Amino acid sequence: MDLSAPIHVAGHQGLVGSAMVRALRDRGAENLILRTHAKLDLTEQAAVREFYRETRPRYVFLAAAKVGGIKANDTYPVEFLRDNLLIQTNILDAALREGCEKVLFLGSSCIYPKHAPQPIPEDALLTGPLEPTNQWYALAKISGLKLGQAMQVQYGLPVVSLMPTNLYGPGDNFDPEGSHVIPGLMRRFHEAKETGADKVVVWGTGSPLREFLHVDDLADASLFLMDNWESDEHVNVGTGEEVSIRQLAELLKDVTGFAGEIVFDDTKPDGTPRKLLDCSSLFGLGWRPSVSLEEGLRSTYEWYLNELGAGNIRG
Ligand code: GDP
Fold first, then answer.
1. Ligand 1, atom 13: nearest CA belongs to which residue?
2. In the structure, what pLDDT confidence band is assigned to residue 178 with cuts at 50, 70 and 90?
3. Which of 73, 135, 146, 183 has its CA 20 to 30 A from that of 81?
4. What is the pTM for the complete model shown?
């Protein structure tokens, strides 16, 4: 990648996009093209085309998406399917029209079948039914990676499609209902500690297994793959390590300093039982994550406390 070229980071205020911006700036990129949601609605095709005609980005990091945890996915199926289809189609189409050099597309490990072999290899895609709780988001992301692949095959636009495992880090959404498990529980443990509550409720049985990647590691892998991934196939990005939700809850209890009890609410959904990615394609190229889960949870908690202190996280 030529880091002095104009680079559009779509979704630069989100968890992933903000990490991309940090990583690009750290490496000296100065010509970043960023638009807030209020300035550019990525679901509007005409607006996106016009924006690309004006700014002519040479590289695109497509990190804009409607995202959320297990409950949000289940509650807003239309937004998760429609908005994501619109955003990614509009951007990929505009990038193709304006002769963009390379696009990075971000999917998710939920594109794989619920009962995929574990660890999940890239070729498990479309071999079985999806996990129902996030099928809407998954279907949109499968369409996005296929559209990227089609653009590469038919028109020669390189689209690097990354399928990251569950992500966390600074910039995450800490909304108690809509968030993913790490920010959701981090906030609940913190508030329980502050109010002196004697227990914290964790959704589900505690037995599901998940793999968590710090978003700075994802950004690092993204830049690495923009330079080193030549295939039109998608590529998994993870750590190769998994923890149960129970173990995660214990870690968060320790990180936040909550002294009470953890209670599991098995009336809430567990989601898919296990989700570990086979990252041998990526690791085979020599890339490895650098942030351990404990270290990442501690620094994310510090970030959360700072944001809370600055009044940036609503109660
Ligand atoms: P998923 O990997 O798509 O299922 O994403 P989530 O991060 O939403 O959920 C991961 C697992 O954590 C699921 O088994 C949830 O039931 C469990 N979980 C436990 N407590 C919470 C919570 O407070 N919020 C969320 N989102 N998940 C929780």
1. 270
2. confident
3. 183
4. 0.95
Cα 275 to its chain centre, rounded Å, is 14
Residue 80 sits in a domain whose CATH number is: 3.40.50.720
Q: How far is the CA of 22 from the centre of ligand 1 (A)?
A: 27
d(CA 249, CA 201): 10
* For the CA of 201, the nearest atom of ligand 1: 20
Active site residue ranges: 137
Say how many C-beta atoms besides its own lie within 10 A of residue 145's C-beta. 23
Model confidence over 79-107: pLDDT tens digits?
999 999 999 999 999 999 999 999 999 99
| Residue 238 in contact with ligand 1 by CB distance below 6 A | no
CB 159 within 8 A of CB 149: yes
Query: Is 127 a member of any domain?
Result: yes
Which residue type does 296 have?
G
Written as six digits, the tokens of 207 are: 């037995």
> Contact 242/276 with Cβ under 8 angstroms?
yes
Instruction: Supply the range of the domain harboring residue 279.
Output: 7-172+212-241+275-291
CA of 203 to the centre of ligand 1 (A): 7
